[in-house]
Amino acid sequence: MELQALPFQQPLDGISPKTIEIHHDKLYAGYVAKKQEIQTALNPLEHGGDLTSANQTYSALRALKDGETFAVNGVYLHEYYFDVLGGDGKPQGELANALTEQFGSMENFISYMSACGMAARGWAVLAWDTKEKALRVYTGDAHNQGGVWGCLPIIVLDVYEHAYFIDTGSDRKTYIANFWKNLNWKAANALFLQATKQA
Ligand SMILES: [Fe+2]
Q1: Which regions of 102-191 does DSSP assign to beta strands (E)?
Q2: How far, in Å, from the CA of 44 to the mean position of ligand 1?
Q3: Distance (Å) from CA 126 to ligand 1 centroid
Q4: How far is the CA of 162 from the centre of ligand 1 (A)?
Q5: 143 CA distance to ligand 1 centroid (A)?
Q6: 55 CA distance to ligand 1 middle (Å)
Q7: Is 88 domain-assigned?
């Protein structure tokens, strides 16, 4: 597991370099390190180690497995988030067409996903639902809560306060508007094409 470099040039519009620096270099990097640390601890258990103490109330294995999903999703969600930043915010491609068709207009989709970001405590995720074969916005209050298996993330919006508090204080609505201003629709479209092909 390698730390992914920031995939865009700074500065963004309305999201400061300071915010991005803390978000990427400290928080995201911290999840990458914890993911590695947990996997190192799991390695012997995956290869014939002593598993007899496994217990759902408390056990070392339970603590590792709980930390594992938090750290791994912490890595992946942040990578998806950074991957769709650094663009000009102008909807384009098959994804834009599919969203317009499914939600009636691009405006409807952006309003809906923005509101989902206001209603969540951690994440709003536009995903391709491989079971329904449809675009869905799901929300999570923690990295390892609210995710739906079988769904492939396309546009991931981080709504934790660390994503905006330095720039807009408690005004999350303005941060979400800034997120859309910087959206890289080309990158999001590539994820959509990949997801629908896989599906
Ligand atoms: Fe974050």
Answers
A1: 123-129, 134-140, 151-158
A2: 31
A3: 16
A4: 6
A5: 9
A6: 31
A7: no
Q: Residue 153: helix, strand or coil by DSSP?
A: strand
102 and 161 in a single domain? The answer is yes
Q: Are residues 46 and 106 in the same domain?
A: no
Count of domains forming the chain:
2
Task: Say which residue the tokens 């934790």 belong to.
Answer: 160
CATH number of domain containing 160: 3.55.40.20
pTM, to two decimals: 0.96
Q: How far is CA 106 from CA 51, 91, 196, in A?
A: 51, 8, 19
CA 100 vs CA 27, 109, 132, 196, 197: distances in Å: 34, 7, 18, 16, 20
User: What range defines the domain where residue 163 resides?
Assistant: 93-198
73 and 97 in a single domain? The answer is no
Ligand 1 center–CA 78 separation, angstroms: 6
Q: Are residues 114 and 175 in the same domain?
A: yes
With respect to residue 4, please indicate whether it lies within any of the assigned structural domains. no
Same structural domain for residues 139 and 165? Answer: yes
Q: Ligand 1 centroid vs 152 CA: distance in angstroms?
A: 19
Q: How far is the CA of 177 from the centre of ligand 1 (A)?
A: 17
120-177 pLDDT, tens per residue?
A: 999 999 999 999 999 999 999 999 999 999 999 999 999 999 999 999 999 999 999 9
Distance 50 CA to ligand 1 centre (A): 35
